[in-house]
Amino acid sequence: MGKSVSIARRTKETDIELTLGLCPGERSVDTGIGFFDHMLNTFALHGGFSLSLTTKGDLTVDGHHTVEDTGIVLGTALAELAGDKSGIARFGSAYVPMDEALAFAAVDISGRPFLWYDAELFSGRVGDFDCQLAREFWRALAFAAGVTLHVRVLYGENDHHKLEAQFKAVARALKAALAPSGEGGVPSAKGVL
């Protein structure tokens, strides 16, 4: 059984309950945004995570608070799972094709939050998901997790494919970065991250 963390976060805009585990397992996602649920489910699958997530947000306004706050809570859980970062690989990267689209992600579990996001999306929406919120989600996740995250869609035509390739690539990069390194200690010449 892998390590897991549970987090509850309530604001005037969202009410979120999440349990994230470091080994494959059950996945249950309900954010009220169908396409976002699909992306988070595939994120958990390809990251080798178990995930239970319920987000109740002010969707009558729009999806921004729901998506961003979910990123904050998921990032916070990832930071807790990484702990003091001793014994982890620290770095991970992945290319993921999704039909005609190709995405790349690289992560450094560094304690230094940063996001580089390069993805040209042409649709305003995919299903009930506002495409501009992808960047907001990754920024919230990276800063709450304290990771350096680079996400790039190299090419593609279908925004569903480009978004799904991103989620799978980030998941696989995180899986590699969180994997045991086989070495003790923190993976830094400074001795601390």
Please outline the helices and strands:
Layout: E1 4-10, E2 14-21, E3 27-30, H1 34-47, E4 50-57, H2 64-82, E5 91-98, E6 101-108, E7 114-118, E8 125-126, E9 129-130, H3 133-145, E10 148-155, H4 159-178
Parallel strand pairs: 3-4, 7-10
Antiparallel strand pairs: 1-2, 2-4, 5-6, 6-10, 8-9
Helix pairs in contact: 1-4, 2-3
Protein described:
The protein is an alpha+beta fold and 193 residues long. The protein has one domain: 2-Layer Sandwich (Ribosomal Protein S5, domain 2). 34% of the residues lie in helices and 31% in strands. The protein is built from 4 helices and 10 strands. It has a 4-stranded mixed beta sheet with strand order 1-2-4-3, with helices on one face. The protein has a 4-stranded mixed beta sheet with strand order 5-6-10-7. α1 packs parallel to α4 and α2 packs parallel to α3. The chain is globular, with a radius of gyration of 16 Å. It starts with a strand and ends in a 15-residue tail after the last helix.
Q: Work out the oligomeric state of the chains in this entry.
A: single chain
End-to-end Cα distance = 26 Å
Radius of gyration (Å): 16 Å
Rounded mean pLDDT is 96
Total tally of structural domains: 1
The CATH topology name reads Ribosomal Protein S5, domain 2
Shape: globular
- Pick out the low-confidence regions: none
Q: Please give the largest β-sheet.
A: 4 strands, mixed
Features:
single chain; 193 residues; alpha+beta; Ribosomal Protein S5, domain 2; four-stranded mixed β-sheet; 31% strand
